[in-house]
């Protein structure tokens, strides 16, 4: 049978694809435990790169910066972007239709162009007004600006997928505007807010270019640290730092999987427990 | 019923010269005036775009009229937002909250009004039993069938004991059998509660079955307000007649003291004023039955549709086609192509203006 | 009147923070960057008056020593590498998305997650992974040398090959997700109708499957090609001089060479090429779908 053969071929293909996707990560993790500085030969198990890493204050502060940047920018972006997505939904037919086009700007703008635009702008403002000197603050602003459109688009898409009569039903069933926000909008948007949180977090963690161009001397993040380590030709700790980042991403993935599983598995019983 | 019984609340509605237009459109409502009595099952009937849903939304407070007055229970509704009106709506799409189960959906309105939890539970239970969904209270709304959703939407509105219940084509998404069943159930419920129902539909049969009175709307204006019988048997104009399902219209050419000259010949009798004669299919007699009435002419059967209790014949009478329906009483009936004698009396006819 | 007032206040509260953020930190900097391209390069690499088209001339290759095609080659190479990488991504993503859509529903979220997780790590780290694999002396590099593809004791990077691998690796998920969404919505009755009407497997694919997945394919192409064209990290880490793309050229004007107007002019060219690419893609999509509008 043709389809059986096709299915078999696809199975093999899927296996190879997984190797392709995970080999680079696995190699990084594997060689981070190498006792010598090589990614060609594994000489023995060692934790020496990790020891060095935690003794290096520059790396520890880069770790802190990475976490602060990712969380701060994501939280701000979810609030601002969520409100914007809702505002667009409410007023999309009126005075704001032109703004929707601006929202797509970061989607079609290569990140390098965005990073450079931010950098030159911050420098220009800093020269004249003395504010916005490069550092964690400018990085957060740049990340938020990049994340907000994505959050707004996600929240907006969820609102557009809702039956518009639901809003009227709220109104009809005696919900004052604040009650509509509290008892209808927030619960109904919760999945969209969660996924936009994850997306914004991913955008921030994945980014190198925007951070690179907006960072100051005190606000080095882990990717920037790795970058300059590679450029300087010093690589030993790089695999160890990368492994830490891969590990935390896998943890987040596991967490989101459990959350997903929990929400779909608990759906049947949800009503009963809440009522 | 358990514990809490629904209070009998009913309010009259007065709509005075209400006009509403939207951008780029002609008036959706053009100076509509209407009185709806307390406890009445009142239907707004018309084709899509006639303004019936707009009128319903004006009553709900979801639209503000450009001009005119709306009073519910003698109180002016000007500037009163939907959440301050004792009016509830059953939406066409049902608009059940996807993040709440059946019980939480029904209790939403009471919760928003700050009714204590115990009372919400009691009233929700009572209304759920009344509407036949007592066993579904802990279901997710996504798991419900169309008919069940409809009942939840109804219960969610009724539980608030509104002065007026608005229903926006609540049965249009259901299949024919269920629809007929729910029509009856809704009608019974309304009688039992004595509540004022304002019902919107584009289905004239549904309107006739359910309503105490019907308002037929055409292009934002009220064409006729009457009982179902009045609207069907004495339509105010051609539009209403067509919309009520009539097909036999015969233009009147001349009129004198004893009768009228029409496209199908001279007819004697008292036919009133108007430009068209309306013949109800049941009022057209064939062959032996035809001999009992004064006006007779010949026609050819061009189509025959057997419908169980009766048979419908499409008749060619010169340029005009008529539809006759005859009760089946065991006779063989007429074949296609046969020429039959047709009789028409002044009973079962009406005359119409354009 | 008070109703209108409340509406306005509500609109301001919801829209203003985001709109302000986008206007001040996205629109203004973009406008500033565009303006900068028309200024002259000052003594410290910073833009000064007068207005001129100097940087565009320089970008086109006209320098002190006459015309050199280097920048033009970089632009052509950027387009070529983007097209190649996008094509390869489609070749990998299409069967992958189809395969996921044929698995039992409860496995699909996990399979999608497996595709997406690598992209949650950082761009730099993903490149570090490939640097590890392509380094001299690794099994992969030795194997390539054995086949005579590289000189012995040489790694597989820096090279154009490594850049293409890096690009495909980076953007594969962006293609799989929209394609999967298209496959999941696939109307199987169309496929059955095609079979019923004597279509061969190829014809079934061409007429019943491909048109239905075209919107997903278009969306994926936009998501892959735009960032691939602007790629900086992968080319910088995995590519040598022969694989640099326009993003590197632009960045260099701000990082090392200090010619901001020239870099700004390069950024404008990048945006312009991106917009042209979108237009071409749109026309192509319209043609492929038989003049039906494909929403991009």
Automatic annotation (TrEMBL), chain A:
Keywords: Cell membrane, Membrane, Transmembrane, Transmembrane helix, Transport. It comes from Spiribacter onubensis. Belongs to the binding-protein-dependent transport system permease family. CysTW subfamily. It is found in: Cell membrane. The chain crosses the membrane at residues 12-33, 58-86, 98-125, 131-155, 183-205, 240-259. SUPFAM superfamilies: MetI-like. It is a multi-pass membrane protein. Its main location: membrane. This is ABC transporter permease. Signal peptide: none annotated. Residues 63-259 form the ABC transmembrane type-1 domain.
């Amino acid at each position: 049978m043709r389809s059986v053969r096709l299915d078999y071929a696809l199975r093999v293909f899927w296996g190879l694809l997984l190797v392709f996707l995970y080999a680079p990560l696995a190699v990084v993790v594997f060689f981070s435990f190498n006792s010598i500085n090589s990614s060609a030969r594994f000489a023995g198990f060692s934790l020496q790169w990790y020891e060095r890493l935690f003794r290096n204050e520059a790396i520890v502060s880069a770790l802190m910066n990475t976490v602060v940047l990712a969380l701060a920018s994501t939280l701000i972006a979810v609030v601002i972007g969520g409100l914007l997505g809702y505002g667009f939904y409410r007023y999309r037919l009126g005075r704001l239709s032109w703004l929707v086009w601006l929202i797509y700007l970061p989607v079609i703008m290569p990140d390098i162009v965005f990073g450079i635009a931010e950098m030159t702008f911050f420098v220009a403002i800093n020269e004249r007004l003395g504010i916005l000197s490069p550092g964690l603050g400018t990085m957060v602003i740049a990340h938020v600006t990049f994340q907000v459109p994505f959050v707004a688009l996600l929240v907006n898409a969820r609102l557009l997928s809702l039956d518009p009569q639901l809003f009227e039903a709220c109104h009809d069933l005696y919900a004052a505007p604040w009650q509509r926000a509290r008892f209808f909008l927030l619960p109904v948007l919760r999945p969209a807010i969660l996924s936009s949180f994850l997306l914004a977090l991913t955008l921030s963690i994945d980014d190198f270019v925007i951070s690179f161009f907006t960072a100051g001397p005190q606000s080095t993040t882990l990717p920037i640290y790795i970058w300059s380590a590679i450029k300087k030709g010093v690589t030993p700790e790089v695999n160890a730092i990368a492994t830490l980042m891969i590990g935390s991403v896998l943890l987040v993935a596991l967490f989101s999987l459990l959350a997903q599983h929990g929400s779909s598995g608990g759906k049947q019983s949800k009503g009963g427990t809440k009522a | 019923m358990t514990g809490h019984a629904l209070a009998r609340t009913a309010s009259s509605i007065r709509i005075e010269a209400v006009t509403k237009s939207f951008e780029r459109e002609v008036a959706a409502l053009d100076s509509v005036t209407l009185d709806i009595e307390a406890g009445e099952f009142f239907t707004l009937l018309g084709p899509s775009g006639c303004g019936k849903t707009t009128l319903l939304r004006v009553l709900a407070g979801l639209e503000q009229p450009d001009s005119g007055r709306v009073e519910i229970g003698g109180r002016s509704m000007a500037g009163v937002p939907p959440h301050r009106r004792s009016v509830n709506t059953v939406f066409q799409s049902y608009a059940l909250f996807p993040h709440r189960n059946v019980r939480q959906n029904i209790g939403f309105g009471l919760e928003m009004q700050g009714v204590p939890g115990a009372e919400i539970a009691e009233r929700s239970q009572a209304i759920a039993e009344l509407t036949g969904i007592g066993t579904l209270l802990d279901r997710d709304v996504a798991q419900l069938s169309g008919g069940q959703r409809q009942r939840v939407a109804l219960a969610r509105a009724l539980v608030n004991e509104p002065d007026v219940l608005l229903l926006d084509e609540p049965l249009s998404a259901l299949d024919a059998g269920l629809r007929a069943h729910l029509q009856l159930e809704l009608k019974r419920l309304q009688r039992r509660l004595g509540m004022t129902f304002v019902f919107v539909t584009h289905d004239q049969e549904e309107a006739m079955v359910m309503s105490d009175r019907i308002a037929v709307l055409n292009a934002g204006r009220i064409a006729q307000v009457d009982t179902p019988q009045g609207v069907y048997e004495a339509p105010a104009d051609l539009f209403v007649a067509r919309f009520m399902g009539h097909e036999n219209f015969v233009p009147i050419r001349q009129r004198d003291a004893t009768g009228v000259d029409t496209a199908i010949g001279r007819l004697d009798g008292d036919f009133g004023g108007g430009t068209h004669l309306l013949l109800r299919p049941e009022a057209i007699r064939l062959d032996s039955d035809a001999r009992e009435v004064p006006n007779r002419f010949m026609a050819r059967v061009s189509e025959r549709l057997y419908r169980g209790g009766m048979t419908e014949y499409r008749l060619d009478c010169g340029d005009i086609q008529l539809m006759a329906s005859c009760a089946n009483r065991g006779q063989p009936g007429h074949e296609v192509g046969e020429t039959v004698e047709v009789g028409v009396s002044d009973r079962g006819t009406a005359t119409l203006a354009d | 009147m008070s109703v209108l007032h409340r509406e306005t206040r509500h609109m301001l509260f919801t829209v203003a923070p985001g709109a302000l953020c986008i206007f001040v930190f996205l629109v203004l900097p973009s406008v500033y960057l565009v303006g900068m391209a028309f200024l002259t390069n000052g003594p410290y690499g910073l833009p000064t008056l007068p207005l001129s088209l100097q940087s565009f001339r320089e970008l086109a290759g006209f320098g002190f020593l006459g015309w050199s095609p280097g920048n033009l080659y970089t632009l052509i190479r950027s387009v070529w590498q983007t097209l190649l990488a996008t094509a390869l991504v489609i070749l990998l993503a299409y069967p992958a998305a189809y395969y996921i859509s044929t698995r039992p529903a409860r496995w699909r979220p996990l399979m999608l997650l497996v595709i997406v997780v690598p992209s949650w790590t950082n761009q730099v780290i993903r490149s570090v992974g490939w640097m590890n694999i392509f380094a001299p002396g690794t099994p992969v590099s030795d194997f390539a040398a054995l086949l005579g593809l590289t000189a012995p004791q040489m790694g597989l990077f820096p090279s154009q090959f490594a850049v293409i691998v890096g690009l495909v690796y980076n953007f594969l998920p962006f293609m799989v997700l929209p394609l999967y969404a298209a496959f999941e919505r696939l109307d199987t009755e169309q496929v059955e109708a095609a079979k019923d009407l004597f279509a061969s497997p190829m014809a079934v694919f061409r007429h019943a499957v491909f048109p239905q997945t075209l919107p997903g394919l278009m969306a994926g192409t936009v998501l892959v090609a735009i960032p691939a064209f602007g790629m900086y990290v992968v080319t910088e880490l995995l590519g040598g001089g022969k694989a640099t793309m326009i993003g590197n050229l632009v960045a260099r004007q701000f990082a090392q060479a200090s010619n901001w107007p020239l870099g700004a002019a390069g950024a404008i060219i990048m945006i312009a090429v991106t917009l042209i690419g979108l237009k071409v893609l749109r026309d192509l999509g319209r043609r492929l779908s038989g003049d039906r509008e494909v929403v991009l």
